[in-house]
Specification:
The structure is a single chain. The chain has 380 residues and is of the alpha/beta class. The protein has twelve helices and twelve strands. The strands form three sheets. It has a seven-stranded mixed beta sheet, sandwiched between helices. α6 links the parallel β5 and β6. The radius of gyration is 21 Å and the shape is globular.
C-alpha cells in the first residue's frame, strides 16, 4: 500500500500508539480528582503541557487542550467574537480557509458580525495591501491558515504580523493544522500571532485530540462551560491518553524536521516535474508552496474517478479536501484562485509525510502513466 493522503489524516506512529495504550491502561484517574490516582493523571497532564510548550517555544500556561483542529478554530474565532464584541463585530479571513474557519465565520455573520474574505492570487496567496485596506477600527480578528490544505499555498504570516503590529487589539489567529513538521512557526513573545490551532492526527498522533496556543495576556471566551478544566477556559475531562500520545507524536515529528521537510520537498518536486510533462495534466500547486502537498488534475477525468482508479492499485490519494470530498463539489480553493469549475472538478491531491519515500513516488508515477493512457484511450 502507498498512502498519499496525509493532509486528510496521518497514520498513527506505532510508538505513539503504544503510549496511548499504556496510558489508557495504567492512568485511570480523573485529573480533577483529589486522590492519588487523580494526582497521577494531573501530573501526566501537566508534564505533557510543559513538553508541548517547550517543543514550540512557548510557556505551559499558553497551551490549552482540545478535541482537534475544528474545535480549536471554532474556539479561537467564536471565543474572540464573544469576548470582543463590545469593541467591534468585524473579522477578516481569507477566501480559501478550511471549513472549520469558513463555516464558523458564516455562523457569526448570521449573528450580526461582518466578515471580510480576502481574495487570493493564482498561487493561493493573499495580498498584504488587501489586508491593509480591509482593516477597520471595529476589526477584532484576523484569521489566516498557515498552509492551505488543498493546494499547499503558504500565507505570509510574518508580513501579516508586521501589519498587525499597528493594531495591537486585533487578535491574530493562525490555523496551523497543516504546518506542523512542514514549516517553522514562530510563536511566543516575539511573534505577533496570538492564537494558533493544532490537531494531533495531522502529525501521526491519535484522532480526537489537539491543542491551541493562546498568548499570555490575550483573552477569548470559553465555548465549553462546566467543571472549569484548562484554567476555566475549556471544560470537560481531559483525554489524558490522547494528550500523552499527541505529545510524543509532536516530539517525534519535530525531531530532524529540516531533513524531513527537505525529503518531502524533493519527492513533491520529483512528482511535479514528471506530471507536468503530460499534455493533459494541470498543476495547481506552486513550487513555492508547502513541501508535502501537490494538487493536479487530468483533463476530462473527474477527481473522484482518479481517486478510485488509484485505489484499485492500492494507492491512496484524495480529492482536494477530505472534509468536503464526499459532497463531490469542486474545490472552493481553486474557485478562489479563478480556476474554471470544469477544470477544478478534475483536481486531486497527493499529500506526503515524513515516512513517504522516493520509491513510493516512482511506483505512483508508473501507475499514473498506465492510467493516463487508459483514460486517453477511453476519451479517444
Amino acid at each position: 500500500m502507498i498512502y498519499f493522503d496525509n493532509s486528510a489524516t496521518t497514520q498513527i506512529d506505532e510508538g505513539v500508539l503504544q503510549t496511548f495504550l499504556k496510558v489508557s491502561q495504567s492512568i485511570n484517574g480523573n485529573p480533577s480528582s483529589l486522590h492519588k490516582l487523580g494526582d497521577q493523571a494531573a501530573g501526566l497532564l501537566q508534564q505533557s503541557r510543559a513538553q508541548i510548550a517547550s517543543l514550540i517555544d512557548v510557556t505551559p500556561q499558553e497551551i490549552y487542550f482540545t478535541s482537534g483542529g475544528t474545535e480549536g478554530d471554532n474556539w479561537a474565532i467564536k471565543g474572540t467574537a464573544i469576548e470582543k464584541s463590545v469593541f467591534g463585530k468585524h473579522l477578516i479571513t481569507t477566501a480559501i480557509e478550511h471549513p472549520a474557519v469558513k463555516e464558523t465565520m458564516h455562523q457569526l455573520e448570521q449573528l450580526g458580525f461582518e466578515v471580510t474574505y480576502l481574495p487570493v492570487d493564482k498561487k493561493g496567496v493573499i495580498s498584504i495591501e488587501d489586508l491593509k485596506q480591509a482593516l477597520r477600527p471595529d476589526t477584532i480578528m484576523v484569521s489566516v491558515m498557515a498552509i492551505n490544505n488543498e493546494v499547499g499555498s503558504i500565507q505570509p504570516l510574518e508580513a501579516i504580523g508586521k501589519v498587525l503590529e499597528d493594531y495591537p487589539s486585533v487578535h491574530f489567529h493562525v490555523d496551523a493544522v497543516q504546518a506542523v513538521g512542514k514549516q517553522p512557526l514562530l510563536l511566543g513573545p516575539d511573534s505577533r500571532i496570538d492564537i494558533a490551532s493544532f490537531s494531533s492526527h495531522k502529525f501521526h498522533g491519535p484522532k480526537g485530540v489537539g491543542f491551541i496556543y493562546l498568548k499570555k495576556g490575550k483573552k477569548i471566551a470559553p465555548l465549553l462551560n462546566g467543571g472549569g478544566q484548562e484554567a476555566g477556559l475549556r471544560s470537560g475531562t481531559e483525554n489524558i491518553a490522547g494528550i500523552a500520545a499527541m505529545t510524543k507524536a509532536l516530539r517525534l515529528v519535530l525531531s530532524d524536521a529540516v531533513e524531513k521537510q527537505a525529503l518531502q520537498k524533493k519527492i513533491k518536486n520529483y512528482l511535479a516535474d514528471a506530471l507536468k510533462k503530460y499534455p493533459k495534466v494541470t498543476l495547481f500547486s506552486s513550487e513555492e508552496g508547502a513541501p508535502h502537498i501537490l494538487c493536479y488534475g487530468l483533463k476530462g477525468i473527474r477527481g473522484e474517478v482518479m481517486v478510485h482508479a488509484f485505489e484499485e492499485k492500492d494507492i491512496y490519494i484524495s480529492t482536494t479536501s477530505a472534509c468536503s470530498s464526499r459532497s463531490k463539489t469542486s474545490s472552493s480553493t481553486l474557485g478562489a484562485m479563478n480556476v474554471p469549475e470544469f477544470i477544478a472538478t478534475n483536481a486531486v491531491r497527493v499529500s506526503l509525510t515524513d515516512t513517504n519515500t522516493m520509491e513510493e513516488a516512482k511506483q505512483f508515477l508508473n501507475v499514473f502513466d498506465e492510467l493516463y493512457h487508459q483514460f486517453q484511450a477511453i476519451n479517444a
